[in-house]
Write a structure and sequence with these properties.
Number of strands: 18
Structural class: alpha+beta
Strand order of the largest sheet: 7-8-9-10-11-12-13
CATH architecture of the largest domain: 2-Layer Sandwich
Number of helices: 10
Radius of gyration: 22 Å
Bound molecules: 2,5-anhydro-1,6-di-O-phosphono-D-glucitol, manganese (II) ion
Shape: globular
Distance between the termini: 70 Å
Number of domains: 3
Length: 424
């Protein structure tokens, strides 16, 4: 049996490998699948074979490592538009993997590395989703007893998900360096695997204190093109302004598991079908709605806020139906979930600086920049009060920033409170 598949199955507690074969996919899916090993992984011990819910996962283990679940037969290559239309007509929205590979044809110099990176993140998302769904049953709730570089308590799932993403991304051989909210310095894959074109930053579990109460959490990622030439990546590959991002996205583990990403060509949302183990396209080119009178902030901190933020929050609570006031308040305490609601329903999320922490709480590289890229691509905006988030040149991996993100109108409004004039 394939040693990588065996290792993966053991690591993920998926069970034993029941069959494998050393060949290309049954239907033609393109060069990148050549020499893949397909493994069907089933629980060990096996459940009742008559049980119609007998779960199996099929993984494609390529030479570069686990590439993702293979759920539905692929349709042969033609041009991208044909493929997307064909899937739509068949009533079967494309999978994330199909969608990314179809779009890859828009980039003539693409050699498939980007797809590998995205597949690794998507596979990580599926496995984290599964672990979260089972949290209380597989001892995934609670804390490790350690604190991370942020000085915050490390949840068991923070550590598990961090290690999983580091392994999956490292195995692609397409990533030269990684940065994680949970790890102090740059993470370099083993020497043989660190010559990739991309630097990846991530918040493995965003809002991890929600796990113990079965409330939504997320994963956030940012993909930068390396700026160093070759070999292992360095800090400078990670410390790039958000406007340089090749892609950014998040996975929301809520009542559905959603994968939302942008490469600078619009924002696309996928929903996980857990019975298939596949993300399927549910919205192409997602845009903020016009309506926007919802605010999302931890107002319990208002006693430590500074004057512009206090004026803003007073203003939005005044009764003035003509300007949509007072706004409604919604706060989940996980940026991914709060942002996702705003992206779909409109409004603004704010995490201001305060007297004790002038730069606030949220991390520029793992949280603020990737979400800002998505917001702008969806017609919204993100600022620290006075500067566009995507323009900020980072000076440290774990740098924080005051943060306001949402519909363009709301972000422009908060900017006016932080400037010399109010909105009148
Ligand atoms: P993380 O779990 O990655 O540390 O992130 C938590 C963040 C963010 O998701 C959320 O918006 C914010 O912390 C909530 O902070 P408060 O509990 O201070 O409101
Ligand atoms: Mn976070
Ligand atoms: Mn986190």
């Amino acid at each position: 049996m394939h040693p990588q598949a065996l290792g993966l199955a053991a690591r993920l507690r998926l069970g034993r490998i029941v069959r494998h074969r050393n060949e290309t996919t049954p239907t033609e899916v393109g060069k990148e699948s050549r020499n893949a090993v397909f493994c069907c992984i089933a629980p060990d011990p096996p459940p009742d074979p008559h049980d119609s819910y007998y779960p199996q996962w099929t993984f494609a283990i390529t030479r570069a490592g686990p590439a993702g679940c293979v759920g539905i037969p692929e349709i042969g290559y033609r041009d991208r538009r044909d493929r997307l239309e064909e899937w739509a007509m068949a009533g079967m929205p494309p999978t994330l993997n199909q969608f990314i590979r179809a779009r890859q044809q828009d980039y003539p110099d693409a050699i498939g590395e980007f797809s590998e990176v995205m597949n690794a993140i998507a596979l990580g998302g599926k496995l984290i989703s599964r672990e979260i769904n089972l949290a209380g049953l597989v001892d995934a709730t609670g804390y490790t007893g350690r604190t991370n570089v942020q000085g915050e308590e490390v949840a068991k799932l923070d550590e598990w998900s961090n290690d999983l993403l580091v392994d999956l991304l490292g195995e692609t051989k397409c990533v030269c360096v990684m940065g994680s909210e949970e790890v102090e310095g740059p993470i370099v894959p083993p020497e043989s695997a660190s010559n990739g074109r991309y630097a990846v930053l991530f918040d493995p579990v965003d809002g991890s204190s929600n796990i113990d109460i079965a409330a939504p959490v997320g994963t956030i990622f940012s993909i930068q093109r390396r700026v160093t030439n070759s070999g292992a990546g360095h800090l400078e590959d990670l410390l790039q302004p958000g406007k340089n991002q090749a892609a950014a996205g998040y996975i929301l583990y809520g009542s559905s598991t959603m994968f939302v990403y942008t490469t600078g060509q619009g924002v696309h949302a996928f929903t996980l079908d857990p019975t298939m183990g596949e993300f399927h396209l549910t919205t192409e080119d997602l845009r903020f709605p016009e309506k926007s009178n919802v605010y999302s902030t931890n107002e319990g901190n208002a006693g430590t806020w500074r004057e512009p933020d206090l004026q803003w929050v007073d203003w939005i609570k005044q009764d003035d139906p003509g300007t949509g006031r007072p706004y409604s308040a919604r706060y989940i305490g996980a940026l991914v979930a709060d942002f996702h609601r705003i992206l779909l329903k409109g409004g603004i999320f704010a995490y201001p600086g305060n007297t004790a922490r002038p730069d606030g709480k949220l991390r520029l590289l793992y949280e603020c920049s990737p979400m800002a890229f998505i917001a702008e691509q969806a017609g919204g905006a993100a600022t620290n009060g006075t500067r566009r988030i995507l323009d900020i040149e980072p000076s440290g991996l774990h740098q924080r920033t005051p943060y306001y993100i949402g519909t363009a109108r709301e972000v422009e409004l908060i900017g006016r409170f932080h400037g010399s004039e109010g909105p009148g």
